């Protein structure tokens, strides 16, 4: 082949691969939109037992056809405290099993039947025709199902185009590939490295699986080489999780490392008895070939091995999850200072996915972090009253000011992120969630501003040498406790939008309002009787009013969640 012919072949392959990747994206997005918030509910039902995590990871990945998306959601849940590290590892293990569904789809639908002599293969056209039943429906979920079916049709069409683009295997190339396989285990290791590199380049294990199946079906590679490429592909796919975890917290990094440890351990398990496993898989595939006669034996064997690799590795390593937790904890130790007073979004920027539902989970996890920062900021206020020296007081004021700046920037970045989600193709459910989260972050930032105003009032009081007696200090201390309880209820409600405790929220606000009214009445009476001067009274009334204002913002958060839930229902 001359240079021009090679270029044409490469362009045809690139175009076919582009159709395949677009089809995978379309199908995955359709499935994710169709499944909606149910994806989150599946993961929130995980118990401490590894089996529940593995089943959840398998199910979610099978639904959304993206192990990366499942991993991102898992990192979000673990970071928010809804999953232990052990539970997150179990989900990642299950995700590896779920991703084998793609290989079976390609093998059963993309490689069965030849379609030779047809200008356009019949199978994808039939599947595309079925989608017409759904895409013109007035219901969004039915349209998403139609999108999924069209994605499947394009996937099969793209796979066929890739197969047609692969040139016949000439003798020189066959001898070269055969020569690379003459070095025993060294050849296996070489092809593992090649598989990992190709998967990193393609940035998707699904495309790599398709490439391996097509190369095998065209006779470019034999079965042992295909097995080595599959092992390498499993190693290469861990890079995405490592990159995503670079800007996350400790739990996210540990989950990503666990993904790497899992796949490396699986590679070692299958490398030691590599050739006996090769014979065993081929034996199983020959038995299956009687049931699936239209599928070439080598691609079928590759799919069986891909499934066997992930299932067996998961079964074996599930018994060693505690040990994996220790290993990744050693690999990513706890920091002496977690950097809580530095501005850093943990979940959203590096993990923007193609589907609103999954991005909303990242945003929800970030909002929970926002709430934790606000609660942490609130705990500084009592120290301003008890500070013995100016240096101690100024140190606390600096921390309050720093946190106030962080809340401003978090609101800005989260608003930009949510706006980006809302500007895309989103479901009604997702649109409601975006609006809810916008209201929540606005009120969280207002809570931060109010805490800062309380601190500034304390600073002015100190500078003006205004002193409260024990009774006034006790009153403000009790108000501080009431608001703290309200903040705790709010923070709890932010963990589960579908089960908010509205009664507890209203009860907490009622207590704050009643106590505020009591303090106001006592304050006005004290002013009339001349118990304290105007400067003391002004500082005192400003403080309890600001605390009551905090209570208003707190209930706004829960009401935003509850009203959104009612609209969605």
| Shape designation | elongated
N/C terminus separation: 63 Å
What Rg do the Cα atoms give? 30 Å
Q: In terms of structural class, how would the helical and strand content be classed?
A: mainly alpha
Mean pLDDT: 79
Q: What is the strand tally?
A: 0
Largest sheet: none
Q: How large is the share of residues in beta strands?
A: under 5%
Number of domains: 2
Summarize the helix and strand pattern as letters: HHHHHHHHHHHHHHHHHHHHHHHH
**How much helical structure, as a percent, in the residues?**
over 70%
Extract low-pLDDT stretches.
113-119, 565-569
Number of helices: 24
Report on the architecture of this protein:
- With 569 residues, the protein is mainly α.
- It has 2 domains: 329 residues, no CATH class; 220 residues, Phosphate transport system protein phou homolog 2, domain 2 (Methane Monooxygenase Hydroxylase, Chain G, domain 1).
- The protein has 24 helices and no strands.
- It is elongated, with a radius of gyration of 30 Å.
- The N and C termini lie far apart (63 Å).
- The C terminus is likely disordered.
């Amino acid at each position: 082949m001359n240079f021009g012919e090679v270029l044409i072949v490469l362009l045809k392959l690139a175009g076919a691969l582009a159709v395949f990747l677009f089809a995978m994206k379309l199908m995955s997005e359709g499935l994710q939109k169709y499944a909606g918030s149910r994806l989150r509910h599946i993961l929130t039902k995980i118990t401490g037992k590894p089996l529940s995590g593995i089943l959840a990871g398998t199910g979610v990945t099978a639904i959304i056809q993206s192990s990366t998306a499942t991993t991102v959601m898992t990192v979000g849940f673990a970071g928010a405290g809804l999953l232990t590290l052990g539970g997150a590892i179990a989900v990642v293990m299950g995700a590896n099993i779920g991703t084998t569904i793609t290989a079976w789809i390609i093998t059963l639908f993309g490689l069965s039947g030849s379609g030779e002599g047809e200008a356009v293969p019949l199978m994808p056209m039939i599947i595309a025709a079925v989608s017409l039943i759904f895409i013109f429906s007035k219901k969004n979920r039915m349209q998403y199902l139609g999108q999924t079916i069209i994605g499947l049709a394009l996937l099969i069409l793209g796979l066929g185009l890739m197969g047609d683009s692969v040139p016949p295997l000439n003798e020189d190339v066959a001898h070269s590939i055969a020569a690379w396989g003459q070095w025993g285990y060294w050849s296996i290791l070489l092809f593992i490295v090649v598989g990992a590199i190709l998967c990193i380049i393609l940035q998707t294990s699904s495309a790599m699986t398709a490439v391996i199946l097509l190369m095998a079906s065209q006779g470019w590679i034999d079965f042992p080489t295909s097995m080595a490429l599959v092992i390498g592909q499993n190693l290469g796919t861990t890079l995405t999780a490592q990159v995503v975890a670079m800007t996350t917290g400790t739990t996210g990094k540990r989950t990503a490392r666990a993904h790497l440890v899992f796949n490396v351990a699986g590679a070692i398990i299958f490398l030691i008895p590599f050739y006996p496993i090769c014979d065993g898989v081929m034996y199983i595939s020959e038995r299956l070939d009687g049931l699936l006669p239209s599928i070439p034996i080598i691609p079928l064997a590759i799919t069986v091995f891909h499934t066997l690799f992930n299932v067996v590795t998961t079964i074996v390593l599930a018994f060693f999850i505690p040990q994996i937790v220790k290993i990744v904890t050693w690999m990513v130790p706890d920091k002496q200072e977690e950097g809580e007073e530095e501005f850093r979004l943990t979940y959203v920027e590096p993990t923007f996915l193609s589907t609103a539902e999954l991005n909303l989970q990242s945003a929800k996890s970030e909002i929970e972090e926002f709430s934790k920062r606000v609660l942490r900021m609130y705990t500084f206020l009592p120290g301003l009253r008890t500070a013995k020296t100016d240096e101690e007081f100024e140190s606390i004021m600096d921390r309050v000011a720093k946190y106030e700046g962080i809340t401003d920037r978090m609101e800005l970045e989260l608003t930009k992120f949510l706006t980006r989600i809302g500007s895309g193709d989103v479901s009604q459910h997702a649109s409601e969630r975006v609006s809810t989260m916008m209201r929540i972050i606005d009120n969280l930032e207002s809570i931060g501003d109010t805490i800062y105003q309380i601190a500034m009032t304390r600073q002015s009081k100190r500078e003006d040498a205004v002193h409260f007696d024990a009774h006034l200090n006790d009153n403000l201390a009790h108000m501080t406790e009431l608001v703290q309880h309200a903040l705790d209820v709010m923070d709890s409600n932010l963990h589960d939008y579908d089960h908010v405790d509205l009664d507890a929220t209203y009860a907490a606000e009622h207590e704050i309002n009643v106590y505020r009214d009591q303090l106001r009445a006592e304050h006005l009476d004290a002013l009339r009787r001349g118990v304290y001067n105007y400067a003391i009274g002004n500082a005192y009334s400003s403080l309890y009013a600001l605390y009551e204002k905090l209570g208003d913002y707190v209930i706004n958060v829960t009401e935003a969640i509850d009203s959104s839930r009612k609209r969605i229902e």
